[in-house]
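Hello forum,

I keep getting stuck at the same step: I have a sequence, I want structure tokens, and every attempt I make locally crashes halfway through. Rather than fight my setup again tonight, could one of you with a working pipeline run this one for me? It's a single chain of 842 residues.
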Amino acid sequence: MNHVFRSGARAWLGFCLALLLCSWKEIGHAQVPVLRSPIESVGAPGMGVSDGGEPFGVVINPASLGGLSGYSFGLRHNETTGQIPWAGRGTGAYFATPLPYVSALKVGAGLELLRPHDDLDMLGKLTLAVAYRPAWWASVGFSYARTLGKPTDRSYGELDTVSVGLQLRANRRLSFGMVARDLNAPKPSTPSWLPAISRSYEFETLIEPLGDSRFSIGLSARVGEMNPEVHPRLRIWFRPVSGLGVGLDGGSVFIKDADPREKVAWRAGVGLSIDFAQVGASVFQLFGRGQSAPVGYHGGALSVRVSQERYPAIWEGPKSVLRLHLGEVSGRTLLRTLLALKQVERNRKYEGVLVIVNDVPGNWATAQEIRQALVALRKAGKRVLAYGADLSMREYYVASAADEILLDPVGLVRLSGIAQGTTHVKEALLRLGVAVDLVRIGDYKASPESFTRDGPSERTRLQRQKVVDDLSQQVFSDIATSRGLALPAVEKLIEEGQYLPTAAQQARLVDGVADQTELHHRLAKVFGSSVRLENLPTGGRSLSVRPHGVAVIEVRGDLVEGRSFKIPYVDFQVVGAQTLSEALVRAGQDPRVEAVVLRVDSPGGSALAADLLSRQVSELAQTKPVICSFGDIAASGGYYLAAPCREIFADSLTITGSIGIFGGKVDASGLFARLGVERARYVRGEHADMESPFRSYTDKERELLLQRMQAGYERFLSVVKAGRKLSSQEVQPVAEGRIFSGKQAMAGRLVDRMGGLTDAVARARELAGLSGEKDAEVLFWPEQPKHLLGELLGVAQNLVSDEPFVLSGVVRNVVGMIPGVVWALCLEGDVLARMDEEPVAP
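Reply #2:
Ran it on my machine without issues. Output:
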């Protein structure tokens, strides 16, 4: 597709340049007039047929309405002197909006009062338009117009005319527009000296060299049919600051054998545009040079727009304070929230943020990313207040990043430290007559121990404790720094465990105790009595005509070979290799995407799925920058598929590594015997039922399984060595199933940089040359289709999650066991690259 667009772009640009050169060549001896249709709509200096997302597209190019994502209303007035018979003088009102439930269709209407120069009467004109956008890069449009008023020898009343338009967006720097106007060439119905309306065709190429609207060049040509006309035009916009633009618009017309009395050499205009997010205005002043007259003033044009869409603004409105309720964001919504907070840093509209700290999603790395976002806001000059009722260790860690922490009068601070556990079910399964027969490669690969041992091995115990100690040291140190306390003092506070509001304030863990009313009084004192609270916008810029630049592909949950799905209530999410593969293919083929960020939050799973995806990631990295961002956990298969990325970002509290594999099966023969189940065997081939749960492995079969595991492990190591550029000697100390915190992994060169999703997206944009596009959104894939059943289950899950017992320690631990048990019971000789994952808690 890119090749086709590039070839078409060169051809289109060459055509426009040829028309421009030809027309200017003739100007020297012809000094041509501007010949336009007498029912031409109100003139629009500074606007062209390749623009998008404006209500004026109803009459400029109906296809441009395809770029709208909300309603838009506009007024325009054009007043030119009688020196030049330019049509398009008058006043118009325009409206356009997407259709409800059919977002690909946009409709619009325009009502204009035209005042032609050529001794014609004033004329009303009603235009109706519809646009269809089949793909992000293409839009087609159709408009129907009827002139209002009685037809006379001095008026083109009661005429019907149709026009069609097309817009194509090659990439973020190049777009095209085309309009065929007055296709039916309408003629007055009553006997009249007035001629029929001539068909005309306009083409335009819009170039944005910087990849956004800061600087744009439009080159167009309009050709008449009945009276051969070529009208070349050049328009330039320069926007030095957000919301403020300076425009130049110039053109001329060449018409063969035109009346010398109507000829004009050229016309040019200079304009200014100002945007206030959802309200904008522009004004143009026009100058020109006629055949015998010197350069003179030819009039001006004014337009005003009010829209649902938000444009880059010179002033965002009254100052506001954002309200961020952490209990309402999770999953993809959380990722969008992190990106939105990054934009808030440079948004002058927001003076500060109120963070309601409860039910913080995810685990420690997620908490760290939220915390880092709050720290960045403070560095950007925003005031951050945190408010909570029951602050667990992880929630307090987030809140400690704020300028002030306020605790509810009936609240509690629970500094319980950091813990992690493993569950061992070997004895329980044996009592049922079930044995899990596993082979592992890697002495530190601890996952099989949950099913093959009554407790952890010494190696496992030491490495898990080492990771917990490292996480604890980081968390305690961050809290001490933020609260201005000595590290030993923080450690002593944690030994005490919990603090009621008064005790928490005395220990300097919080800055005040406040109920809801007192909280608002505190906000008024900090930000002023007229403080206005707003919810955080997570959608970014809403202008849909701009292509995106970075795709974030989420790898969240246990990795399997099929499609992704989620089991409600137990928070067991499966990410399918087929679903991810389709997203990677789409990212490689979509010309909107110039860089990719893999967001990995997975303990791994199927080694085959991880290997297939790692190869696909490696192929994609040959054509586009691919950066990886680790979430709470990116271990085993989750690390496997990420290894070929160009750079890997991890939070220092991320759990990663676990480079090792295991496999085997469940032997339920003892259970079947207890139940009195007999199974007869009919086989041909010694190992035909090798994976049957009705018997154990033979020694030979165990050797075959071991060979298979060893080959899979060697493949895993080769991918890590190639992706991370490590030698065999360098990879050995970080392999064999060892796990690490993000900080430890960086020391072992398993990751490149400390940072979260926003840092990874910024780096991807930098590598793709997109760093100047501050307002571009980010695509998130795979898409998450919403079904009625899923919505109902989601509502039910939210209702249940409000009950305190669901988050109790017993239920949390049981839920944490479920993914591992599911994997074990489904084993049929599969090779797994997975780390057992239980919450690192308070």
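Residues 550-677+687-831 form a domain with the 2-enoyl-CoA Hydratase; Chain A, domain 1 fold (CATH 3.90.226.10). If your local run keeps crashing, start a new thread with the error log.
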